[in-house]
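Predict structure. Chain length: 276.
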Amino acid sequence: MARRRYAFDEGKIARFQKEGRGQGRGTSYKPWLTIQDVASYGRSHRIAGIKTGRVHHFLSDIERDTFYQFDWADTVTDIREQYPLDREYTRRIAADLDIKHPRDAATEIVMTTDFLVDIAYEGKLRQLARAVKPASELEKPRVIDKLEIERRYWVQQGVDWGIITERDIPEAIVTNIAWLHPYITLDQLTAPYEGYYQEKARLLLRALPSHPATTLRQFCLAMDQQLAMHVGDSLLLIRHLLARKAISCPMDTAITDTWPLRQFQVPTDESRRASG
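Prediction complete.
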């Protein structure tokens, strides 16, 4: 039963196309594959995107960690995961290479690229296509064959293509982004009145530069009391301000609440960012 649920045939491919899978941009994009379409081994993830304002679907931890980096980068404007490749093109490429096109039983499947990313660079829009694989997979001849089809596809489209493995993931940076990412917005919090948390965030931001030697933990406990908030609310708001980049700090070392506040810098446009 499970095998039939996840199997592909021409009818299912036609249905996905009719549903608009692999089409759209930003909030309207629909990935070709979601976590419901692929057999799960406990490593799938659904994460709300900062850039796109939609929920993204990832089929592995490496995809999730790669997404965190793209979503954090200021130059990235859109992220499309599980992007479908035109099957007629991939069939021709496979034939040219004299290798078998990926298939499911009797059906040649629609190949996908793990990420298609839009980047604004020097006033121009560029696209990056990235395949995400465990490094051990790159030792398998069949995996290399399929990646070569994908590589040639994007070369023909004039799009920069590459492979990302776990060896390319900076652990501390990704850990920090994952810690901050859920707090980009405060909409999920129940507030005593509209604008409550935004108001408290601005007060925290104003006070932070005045206590450079105080640890983050000490500062947050003191501000919870001073601003009459629940214990933990100040740290939550610091995470929000970091996620909004109203505060910056070193990202290549795991953030801890024992850091002195001098580690956290307030840019000059903090009021605009904090108000979001």
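Summary: Residues 141-157 form the longest helix (17 residues).
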